[in-house]
Amino acid sequence: MHWARPHSSSIRKECSMGVRIKEFPNVFLDLPPEGKKDLLRTMIRIRSFETRVEELFLAKRIPGFVHLYIGEEGVAAGIMSNLRKNDWITSTHRGHGHAIAKGAQMNRMMAELYGKRSGYCKGKGGSMHIADFSVGMLGANGVVGGGFSIAVGAGMTAWMKKTDQVAVCFFGDGASNRGTFHEALNMAAIWKLPVLFVNENNQYASTTPVSYGVSASRISDRAVGYGIDGYTVDGNNVVEVYNVAHTLIDRLRSGKGPILLECRTYRVKGHYVGDPEKYRTKEEVKKQVEENDPIQRYTTYLLEQSFLKPEEIDALWKEAKEEVETAVRYAEEEPYPAPEEALEDLFSPEQEVWV
Amino acid sequence: MSMLSFSEATLQAMIEEMERDPTVFVMGEDIARQGGIFGQFKGLPDRFPGRVLDTPISETAILGSALGAALTGLRPVADMHFADFISVAYDELVNQIAKNRYMFGGQANIPLVVRAPDGIVPGAAAQHSQSVEGWLMNIPGLIMVSPSSPATAKGLLKSAIRSNNPVIYFEHKVLYPQKGEVPDTEFLTPIGKAEVRRAGKDVTIVAYSIMVQKALEAAGNLSKEGIEAEIIDLLTIKPFDMETIVTSTRKTHRCVIAHEGVVHGGAGAEIAAQVQQEAFYYLDAPILRVGTKNVPIPFSPPLLDFVAPKVSDIEQAVKQVLYREGR
């Protein structure tokens, strides 16, 4: 396998005049060897899951629509490796990677994609609505920009209960143009809530390039308007993402207020599986796949630094493949819900206050 | 019993529930420093520091963050300032709050109350006078209640706060200063149960919120003409108490539905559809609806008087179903 060289990159915090005032080192701040391996494992698990989901969708095993996270794994892995189980995240319609990285089980995710009863949402949600509240994954969201204020509310819970939990809101470049972005960042800022707003700038809002649809040159520049810190990192360099998130999430836990983190990444696959992708060239995608793949870049880094041996990396791919195949078998074998189960789960059971 | 205004009754409900459960908090515009534009939160922030939050004018973030707080262990009461502004946070209400539990397979409880002051205030015109329950009738996953008296205002608000599901609490702005008897001992007004306010044999009038008073006034006038109306105070608009409505209608054979919201596509449309299905062979006349005419609420007094539902409109509808007057 060919391992591309990691890109050199800079991580900048910009003040209102756009002056660089701080840099993070591009080496791990604080991560034992097993942690370095876990980062790669998470990325490989996401990639393996998504690759198989694409095949299954094209083979008509999975109904509906799927939006794949391939090429963006560095963001989910780098951020989530700094979170605890009782921290919260809100996710997007492209949320499989977030769920896996936060600790959701692949078999129940796959069962949900199949519409089976043992899926996370008993077949009521599907790909765009996976949640696992038991690990703090407060849900993917079919509405672009729907997660901002939900994350703010989770931050309010930490604030009012005086815990050191944090909430992370994942959102795309397109979502940064929603009014919900404005209201949520302002509200989080006035109350200094522990919310990390993680922008996954994958260059396309559905079919609209970020260069056309976003007025700011950096989405992180928008932080200035809320009096909070904003950073832009290379989201395809998981070392950078990990390091910056490590520092920023520590800062959140100490009660210093919300932060906006833009992770520049690239959506390798179409907006959805089946997207004719008329808005970009095949060459553009090919160049990204060959030169900017987050897993390849990190693998090269680990090998160059002798943190991992090639056979260990091969073993991670093999393990992930087995995990995915187990999940597929599980999803295939599990029963569909009974039709009338469509009428369940609308309301929580009540005793005292309902007739 | 104590004589309390609606504002005082709802404030008592807030105090009792916030004392009872430390996870209950309230957020909204102008509620802490100002005490609410109708005085309904007066003194609450002093009693519960840190649990009565003034928000920026950000209805979207108010309802969205209330959902996030509810999902993670708090019991938020979100004040909408005016029910009209629900539209600003419509996505949060209908696509997030209403659907969260269902689309995630019943994983979460959503103990969330939206307080929504609604109804016609003379001169407030199109964007501060609406009754918007019709906007939400079509959304599975939401509960809607609306009190008609200080006692039910207190009892329903307490029930709404204790409910583990999203409840929209519509409180009519004109009613805030009105006084009525409220029991001194603790009580809840159950969700999903209507109350018969006046017994009668000739016609059933289904009403809620301020229209219950207007229906009672109409019934008094009709009584002088020998017509005895039975008045059902719905209290819960959705899911409404079909049993009470149908039982009464089967007895009286006639049904008039009165609400302040626009007639077309309003809550009354659903009630009428269900009543005709359950009581068709008992009905001696078509079900009639009384409500605001099919235009936004106008400003000028004669215009408002023409479109808003009045006591005389209820009387006329009753006479119509009794064939006392022609169309």
Account of the 3D structure:
The complex is a heterodimer of chains A (355) and B (327). Chain A is of the alpha/beta class. Chain A has one domain (12-343): Rossmann fold, CATH 3.40.50. In chain A, 40% of the residues lie in helices and 10% in strands. Chain A is built from 11 helices and 8 strands. In chain A, the strands form 2 sheets. A 6-stranded mixed β-sheet of chain A has the order 1-7-8-4-3-2, with helices on both faces. A two-stranded antiparallel sheet of chain A has the order 5-6. Chain A starts with 11 loop residues before the first strand and ends in a 22-residue tail after the last helix. The model of chain A is unreliable at 1-22 (pLDDT under 50). Chain B is of the alpha/beta class. Chain B has 2 domains: 2-182, 3-Layer(aba) Sandwich (Rossmann fold); 195-321, Rossmann fold. Chain B contains 11 helices and 14 strands. In chain B, the strands form 3 sheets. Chain B has a 7-stranded mixed β-sheet with strand order 3-2-4-5-7-6-12, with helices on both faces. A 5-stranded mixed β-sheet of chain B has the order 9-11-10-13-14, with helices on both faces. Chain B has a two-stranded antiparallel sheet with strand order 1-8. In chain B, helix 3 runs parallel beside helix 4 (90-103), helix 7 packs across helix 11 and helix 8 packs across helix 9 (267-279). The longest helix of chain B is centred in the first third of the chain and has 15 residues, at 6-20. The radius of gyration of chain B is 20 Å and the shape is globular. The termini of chain B are far apart. The chains are: A alpha/beta (355), B alpha/beta (327). At the A-B interface, helix 5 and helix 6 of A face helix 3, helix 4 and helix 6 of B.
